[in-house]
Structures are given as structure tokens and as C-alpha cells.
Write a structure and sequence with these properties.
Shape: elongated
Bound molecules: zinc ion
Distance between the termini: 68 Å
Strand order of the largest sheet: 2-5-6-7-8
Number of strands: 9
Strand content: 35-45%
Oligomer: single chain
Length: 189
């Protein structure tokens, strides 16, 4: 189970669902599908926009000791390309899983397992496990295209759309730049 700790959850949509009374008995099952509204969240320095929202297909089953949530979430996301900062599109498809303990007793809470969510009243927010699973699927780098050339480290020109002449000019900040002054000028005729 993925924890939602790594994401900034302020202002995120909620998808409230009542586990009770339908899922009160072992073996009871509910199937849910839908789409929740456009949102955005951040992960580290990355701001992820979900302009089309998130579609989901979920199943909730009372297993006897709790309610197991399983299913899938899909979203088309946009963020800044890690190399050039242009818009990068990424399709996120994530397996969603969570486990809810209905009406836990004190012993269960004390001996708690990180992956379980306790609910005294059976009200849960399905947006949390859905968004957490999408965050988990995010790669460390998102590129606008596989061969993104990035920005010139010296003049910050976007090398996908423009050329710069920085590579023709010696870099005065290079640690060995001072050595050049000691060498004969081999480019001179
Ligand atoms: Zn790029
Ligand atoms: Zn340059």
C-alpha cells in the first residue's frame, strides 16, 4: 500500500464513499467506476496537472476482517519536462489497493499495520488511494520527448528549437580554462 504522505493533499478533490451498511457483512461486494474532476498535485518539485480528471474502476469486498479495495486508475497528466521545462505529457495507469478496517477496537489500532485505514463510521475518501497510486507510478524524470536535447547549461537556449554557439566558445568557468593561456594557440595559422 502506498502512503499519501509524499504528496501535497491540500485542495485535492474528495471521493467520499460509505462502506456501511452495504458492505457490513463478509462476502459483500461493490463495484464503482467513474471519473473525478480535473485536479493537480505536486510531488517534490514536479507539479502534475490532471486536466481531464482521473477515471477509475474499483471493487470493494468485505473479506471478513475488513474491506479490501482493488482496481485501476487512469489519467492523462501534464507537467514540465525535466530537461527543457516545456510541457511534457504522460499517461498514468495505476493499480489501486487499500484496506479498511471497520470499527476497529483499541487492540487493532495499537497493533496497527501501516497499510490499513481505520474507519469508525464506514466513511472513506477513495480519492486518497487513487491519487497515491498515481503518484507512485510517476517516474523521476518526465521528458517532453525521448530525445529531448534540454537547455544549454550556459545560455539556457532550448536546444530542441534553437541552436546556440556556446560550444564554439571556450567556457571561462571550466576548471582547466586557465591552462589554455599556457598553450600555443593551435587555431592560429
Ligand atoms: Zn524537453
Ligand atoms: Zn548556449
Amino acid at each position: 500500500m502506498v502512503s499519501a504522505e509524499s504528496i501535497d493533499t491540500a485542495g485535492l478533490p474528495q471521493l467520499i464513499y460509505r462502506l456501511l451498511p452495504e458492505l457490513a457483512s463478509p462476502g459483500e461486494c461493490a463495484v464503482l467506476s467513474g471519473r473525478f474532476p480535473p485536479t493537480q498535485f505536486s510531488k517534490g518539485a514536479m507539479l502534475i496537472h490532471l486536466a481531464e480528471g482521473v477515471s477509475y474502476e474499483l471493487e470493494l469486498t468485505n473479506t471478513g476482517s475488513g474491506v479490501l479495495l482493488t482496481g485501476w486508475a487512469h489519467a492523462d497528466a501534464t507537467t514540465d519536462c525535466t530537461r527543457c521545462t516545456d510541457i511534457a505529457n504522460i499517461r498514468l495507469e495505476a493499480e489501486v489497493e487499500a484496506y479498511y478496517i471497520l470499527d476497529p477496537d483499541d487492540a487493532e489500532i495499537a497493533d496497527h499495520d501501516d497499510s490499513a485505514v481505520f474507519t469508525k463510521n464506514g466513511i472513506i475518501d477513495l480519492a486518497e488511494p487513487i491519487l497515491a497510486s498515481l503518484v507512485y507510478e510517476l517516474p523521476f524524470t518526465v521528458l517532453c520527448r525521448d530525445d529531448c536535447a534540454g537547455l544549454c547549461p550556459r545560455c539556457y537556449a532550448n536546444l530542441n528549437s534553437e541552436e546556440c554557439s556556446c560550444s564554439d566558445i571556450p567556457d571561462p568557468s571550466h576548471p582547466l580554462a586557465a591552462l589554455r593561456t599556457l598553450l600555443p594557440d593551435i587555431t592560429a595559422e
